[in-house]
Design brief:
The chain is about 35% helix and about 25% strand. About 30% of the residues are buried. By secondary structure, the chain is of the alpha+beta class. The strands form four sheets. Strands 1-2-8-3-6-9 form a six-stranded antiparallel β-sheet. Strands 5-4-7 form a three-stranded antiparallel β-sheet, with no helix packed on it. Strands 10-11-12 form a three-stranded antiparallel β-sheet, with no helix packed on it. It is globular, with a radius of gyration of 23 Å. Helix 2 runs antiparallel to helix 3 and helix 2 packs across helix 12. Strand 10 and strand 11 form a beta hairpin. The longest helix has 18 residues. It contains twelve helices and 15 strands.
Amino acid sequence: MKNMNGYYDFSGQKFGYPLSLSINGFSQNIFARQSSLEISYVLQGTYEAVTEHFSCTLKEHEMIVIAPYDIHMVSIKDEEDKGLILTIHIDFSRMAEAMVGDPAMSFCSSIFTKDKNSKIYFSLKRKIGELIKMLMKEKSNLLQLNVLMAELVFLSAVKEQPSMEELPLQSEQQENYMKAIRYIDEHCKEPLSLGDVAQQLSFSPSYTSKLLKKYTGIPFIKYLSYVRVRNSLESLLEGKEQIEEIALDCGMANGKAYTTTFKELYGILPSAYRKQFQHNLRYNEHRNDQKMELSEEQTQFLMHLFEEHREILYEDEKILIWKENNMLCCESKETWKKVEWEPEGKFKIHFDEKRIYNEG
């Protein structure tokens, strides 16, 4: 998250609401794991996503859905390039259990592009646009927000295994690395040394050190500091505690060490990060409603999601048909063989599997 350009953060979780949305030019160079469902949509640049099960490259207007509790990392592929990514988190722990059941049984981390999971990609993309449009209104509707959130969850609930084209993380070294970072993540607030991690996993300190350096690119001490700072973000954004208190709570030695690491990781002081977040809150300090404020540059990057002139006439798993500026438009979600036009503006679309769609 070193690049804070284009930064915007709407956190409903500050008020007990399950949905949060951020726009950021970030590069997440450490592995994360959270209880929420994560949807990340690339607005600009090229990102690399790594999960416990696969890795992939995400290009502009492609997205990844991260299942709850999956260890993952999403980072800009080339630090010299400008990247901008939109990320939505939906935290099931803030919902009644009867509404969501067991999230672990419903989701599988998956890629969504025009070519992969395309049947859902277009619908998911459009719902994200509807969500942003609603948040930008002067007055929004909580019931409408609930409906959009539920639709995003439903569309994301795809139990599909990654394809052979994606790179599996299955070597013994990679599996050991995942064990190590999982242990660090679970015990990062405690006094923790490289020897502790090695002993717990029955590795030698030398092997553990080389393992972490190989996959994180940084020494154990620095990686541990990054994890601690990342895990402190919720406390920082709540704004109730001083920086020194937050530092000690997350396992850092003191406020100075915390601030130094935070700036190294995010490119901004923690106090400035908190101030920027509070400025972008959906509600002001008096809990009065305020619209989502985006810069002109941010709005330009989001325009393709809004589809302001589209009147959706029909949609199924094969095709999307809409009116735009008084023109009838079609977008196929799979390859068709031919289109036959008939009198009075009627047409037939022939798909590869010999299914025919009629539109009057």
